[in-house]
Each structure stands twice: as structure tokens, then as C-alpha cells.
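Handover notes (outgoing to incoming on-call)

Open items:
1. ABC transmembrane type-1 domain-containing protein: sequence verified, structure written out, both below. Nothing else pending on this one.
2. Nothing else urgent.
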Amino acid sequence: MKRFLARWWGPCLLLLAWQVGVQASGVNQIVMPHPMAVLMDMASNPLVYGRAAAGTLLVAVPGLTAGLAMGACWRCCASFPQSWNIC
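ABC transmembrane type-1 domain-containing protein C-alpha cells:
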């Protein structure tokens, strides 16, 4: 479980942060079938996507920092001898 969390903590937090940023910006659902449709929609609604990106960064930066720190702690903790029983 520790190995799984250490590996996937960052991407999961980034996905969660994007979701929070999108919800905070007022965009209920973004469905785009093609990358060009995404670019065209971003060009026509820069404020909406800007708010989503800002919300994402506000959640992602501290979240990813905490996730990386926790992953490093788990890796360091796993490197200690099992007899120490500190994990």
C-alpha cells in the first residue's frame, strides 16, 4: 500500500485539484471530443479556463508538495530496518 501511495499520490492530487478548480470556476462539465475543440473553446472562454487553471494551481501546488513530501517520508521510512518499527 505504501508503494502504491508513494507512486500515485501526485497524479491523484493533480486530478483532484483540476476537478476542484473546474468546479470552483463554475464549469459544470467539459466535454470535448478533439484537441482542436479544446483549443477553440479555450480561446472563446479564456476567463472560465483561466479561473479553472488558477483554482487548480491553488490546490495542486500545496497538494503536490505535500504528496511528494509524504512519498519521500514513506520511502525513507521503508528504508529503515523492520526491527525499528517506526513506520
